[in-house]
Amino acid sequence: MPAGFSLEPLQRSHPRRPFECGQSEVNDGLHTRALQHQNKRLSATKILLNQDGAIAGFYTLATGQVDFGDLPSELARKLPRRALPVAILAWLGVSVAYQGQKLGDLLLAQALRDCYEAGQTFAFVAVILDCVEDRSRTFYQRWDFAELPGNPYRLFLSSQTLTAMMTQPSE
């Protein structure tokens, strides 16, 4: 983590309401649903706190299933023809006060690390996410996420690509 920041699981005491990332859907995900879903064991949210205890960014992970037919043929080729397990990056947001400082990259890298580590115990075929707009889609595509067929705003990163990212030596 950058100096002065800490990453921790979301707690009731964290100041969620002041968080603003410029996307109302993402803000609402943190303000109204993240803690409730975490308490119901539907997802897990980690927040990046600045030195004053304000939320600089966050991400939410969950598990789910994707239908075999929704996957690209090269990924689905040798998989069973049924609903398949996936990791879901449900939300990722960076406060407007910290945008442009690479905190989104830092949060995504940590979210993918969390998925990779969880995948050592609970297998999944891909990490899936839904983009809310073109700018976020471009951001994720820089990280090798690709479009699912027929849905340009639903992206995936195969578990093989994730493993390669996590196991290749740093440059």
Task: Describe this entry's structure for a reader.
The chain is of the alpha+beta class and 171 residues long. Helix content is 32%, strand content 30%. The protein has 5 helices and 7 strands, in the order βαββαβαβαββα. It has a 7-stranded mixed sheet with strand order 1-2-3-4-5-7-6, sandwiched between helices. A hairpin with a 2-residue loop joins strand 6 and strand 7. Helix 3 packs across helix 5. The longest helix has 17 residues. The chain is globular, with a radius of gyration of 16 Å. The relative contact order is 0.15. The model has no long low-confidence stretch (mean pLDDT 92).
In short:
The protein is an alpha+beta fold and 171 residues long. The protein has helices spanning 24-39, 73-76, 103-119, 134-141, 159-167; strands at 6-9, 44-49, 55-67, 83-94, 126-130, 146-148, 151-158.
